[in-house]
Design goal:
CATH architecture of the largest domain: Orthogonal Bundle
Oligomer: single chain
Number of strands: 3
Order of helices and strands: HHHHHHHHEEEHHHHHHH
CATH class of the largest domain: Mainly Alpha
CATH superfamily of the largest domain: Intergrase catalytic core
Length: about 300
């Protein structure tokens, strides 16, 4: 997890991580949002992401509700942020200013009454099974055998279990039981669950482990330096393979999670089982895949029906 230069952002980050149990990925995302607001208050339009993280923002301590509203209007207007991104930044500022008030850094909370834009529910994007197969068969020329086997194991794991990229990065060697084909993963809120992997993925992980470099780091997946991969590394590995795979639909590591759930549903697995495998608290969250499954089938129907194709 990166360290913020601003003392208030750093203190808030520590509060989220140590007292609220938030993941490093969430803490970093919130810190970037708050730094972006700091740059807005300072009218620093030239700040890159790196230089923003290296600066302090004293304006944050005295920001008003009007400042936050102007920031949100700028994001939604001239900067063209989508409603989901704006909502996340509002959530970050609410958390930050609640922390400042609670810990007596200031007397009021300027973010408490800031409304969030409404977001229409969108169906998750799902890849057809043929595209998933194409992705899993893709390799990058010039990489070492260790890297090739590692990347293949990661890709197989994403689709075999529906795990998030942060969960992949956090897996430790002793979390993996290849004989039983299960892996203990730590999800959002540090909640743990057991996921099942197929025989193909178990073999891919075994092949990788046979070439995994010796390291004092107990993480399952390592980089070239022998240290644990980060969620950003997992994204980069996926994106590199995706770009050369020939798959035309937009996809990310999370698309593999949606594809995993949808394909299981289409092949007869019940929603409660899928809910447990995904780590969803509520079955209502998992039920969206029933709609995705229908849309997925409809797209396949439209592409395949001879009457429309002949017309």
């Amino acid at each position: 997890m990166r360290l913020a230069a601003d003392p208030l952002i750093s203190a808030h980050n520590a509060h989220m991580r140590l007292e609220l149990g938030r993941s490093p990925l969430t803490c970093d995302a919130y810190a970037r949002d708050i730094e972006l607001f700091g740059a807005f208050l300072a009218k620093d339009k030239k700040s890159s992401k790196r230089s923003t993280a290296e600066k302090t923002w004293p304006q944050l301590r005295t920001a008003t509700s009007s400042d936050i509203r102007q920031f949100i209007m700028t994001l939604a207007g001239p900067r063209g942020y989508e409603a989901t991104a704006v909502r996340r930044k509002i959530a970050s500022l609410r958390s930050f200013y609640k922390f400042l008030k609670t810990h007596n850094y200031r007397d009021d909370d300027p973010a408490v009454h800031i409304p969030s834009p409404k977001v229409g529910k969108k169906l998750p994007k799902v890849l057809p099974e043929a595209d998933v197969t194409k992705l899993l068969r893709t390799t990058v020329a010039g990489r070492s055998e260790f890297q090739q086997l590692r990347d293949r194991a990661i890709m197989e794991l994403l689709y075999a279990s529906g795990v998030r990229r942060a969960e992949v990065a956090s897996i430790q060697l002793n979390d993996v039981d290849l004989r039983r084909r299960t892996i203990l993963v730590t999800g959002k809120g540090n909640k743990q669950r057991i996921v099942i992997i197929n025989a193909t993925t178990a073999r891919a992980i075994a092949d990788y482990l046979a070439h995994r470099p010796q390291s004092q780091d107990e993480a399952l997946f390592l980089g070239r330096t022998g240290r644990q991969l980060t969620p950003r590394h997992i994204w980069h590995i996926f994106h590199t393979l995706y770009k050369i795979s020939g798959v035309r639909l937009k996809a990310s590591p999370h698309t593999m999670r949606h594809s995993f759930a949808t394909h299981l549903l289409e092949h007869g697995v019940d929603l409660v089982t899928i809910q447990e495998l995904l780590g969803h608290q509520s079955l209502a969250t998992t039920q969206i895949y029933t709609n995705v499954s229908f849309e997925h089938k409809k797209r396949a129907y439209d592409e395949a029906h001879p009457r429309d194709r002949s017309e």
